[in-house]
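Bit of a strange request maybe. I'm writing a small parser for structure token strings and I need a real example to test against, not something I typed by hand. Could someone generate the tokens for this chain?
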Amino acid sequence: MIGKNGCLVTPGKSIRERTMQPITEDEMTTNYTLLQGIHSCRSKATNIERGFKEMAKQEILELKPIEVKNAQVFIVGDSDLILNKVNARYEREVRDVDLGKKTVKEVPNMWEDILTSVKWNIPFPVKDTYRDMNEDTYRYMLENGKPCISSYGLWKSIGDAVVRNEIDTYATKIKNAVNIIAADNSIPIDFSEAYVDSKVMPLKKSGHTIAKLNRFVGWKCNFTIRYTESVYSLNQIISFINLAGFGLGIGSGRSSGYGRYHVESVVQK
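Reply from user aminoacidic:
Good idea to test on real output. This should exercise your parser:
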């Protein structure tokens, strides 16, 4: 026990009987370390107690599951549909440039350009699209396969319709509330007639070229949407799809009025 003047006091005796002994430097260091440890433990205990009190004050948040619903939407074309994505020949040329290969201009295979500018729901029946595609390949694909529209393009147009019709400033809410379920980002269409149109198209640098465009008449399709009604109801979502079909459309040539459509029916799942 430490007494006055830094002396060690022997406990168990009266003050007069206690023998006053000077404390050594090592003993002072040990005692100081012990006092620091006691102070640290008291501080930690105080902090823990304070933490438990703060936790008791906090509200317990209940995480509710998101109610996700499904619906099948049937749309019918109001104008012809033109599908004209990047074809296989152009993809080869871009890939060769990217790899630093010497670009060799090929004599175009018209049927390769026509067929590969459309996304189909079945694979082509030929191995080499440049050498093997012909009119028979085109007929085979029309009879056995179905051309497809982009589910991403359709989903994006719904958000654009919300903004353009001044329903909301941004498309964030509707895009977060609706997803279109489609394998490989593709929605197959049915059609009554198919045509290959020749159109003069300007080149980027100079001159013009003759483009072959796939045009489908009497087209329709259906797709599944997954949605939540936390912001918009199903009726509102279908209204937005109709606005997109009326004002924006799908596919190529939309600025010329192609690819317009409307919702024919909806089946909730």
